[in-house]
Amino acid sequence: MSTKIVPRRSEERGHADHGWLHTFHSFSFASYADGSHEQFGCLRVINEDRVEAHTGFGAHPHREFEIFSYVVDGEISHHDSMGNEEILKRGDVQMTSAGTGIRHSEHAHGGNQVHFLQIWAMPYQRGLKPQYYNRTFTDEAKTNKLATIVAPATAPGVTDTREGSGPTPIHAQLYMHASIISSATTITHTFPKPANASSSATKAYIHVIQKSGYNPGPAKGGKVTVSADGQEVVLSEGDGAYISSEVGKELKIENVGDRVVEFVLFDVDAA
């Protein structure tokens, strides 16, 4: 199987400016519907949100999704029906395993806009008991290397507790890595063996965080090349890419621009 890298350009994402919320949708979400971008394996939502100060999402319900937030800049005030109250800041990863049902709210905390990724995955089992997790990953832990920040709850090194060290638990066949990569630096990643051991096929999705600001037009800012098995694609801030490959092959991400780039990378089972 040869590697295939298909770019998902920033300006092709769904987007909306509600005044208090400036958002992009990599996959179909809310009023944005695109049958060719519904999900990728168990990965169902990647929303890049900017919420203005003193505003936010009021209490609303969820069920049967693994929902997590990756804070890029600013702070989020989180409240939920499980009794969790948290102020999330840059470097924090907050996971809500909605299971049979929860309600939560999120607001920009303090006097500044908050910029974060909201990500949903479909669980490997329905009817789970709702749970909440919080982990922190420093910039140092992500600089010029891949830090594994989310991993299946059953994976080695994962502690299935509300707080702790190591990756944030998720009840889905998904790993999430994050990196802050300097100019002229290359990071490599070997595609892991999927949980479905009968298959050598695997999938990944990369998203380059749009730190240059809310811009519905063509991507700008930092640039990386993503290459594997003779395939190469250039991605700018806000761009993403679908990647299909085989276990053991190597993916390279090189910063070819003039500024630091932050990105997230998901390993998703092909099955």
UniProtKB/TrEMBL annotation:
SUPFAM superfamilies named among the record's database cross-references: RmlC-like cupins
Top-rank taxon, per record: Eukaryota
Annotated protein name in UniProt: RmlC-like cupin
Species assigned in the record: Neolentinus lepideus HHB14362 ss-1
One Pfam family here: Pirin
Family: Belongs to the pirin family.
Ranges for domain Pirin N-terminal: 12-120
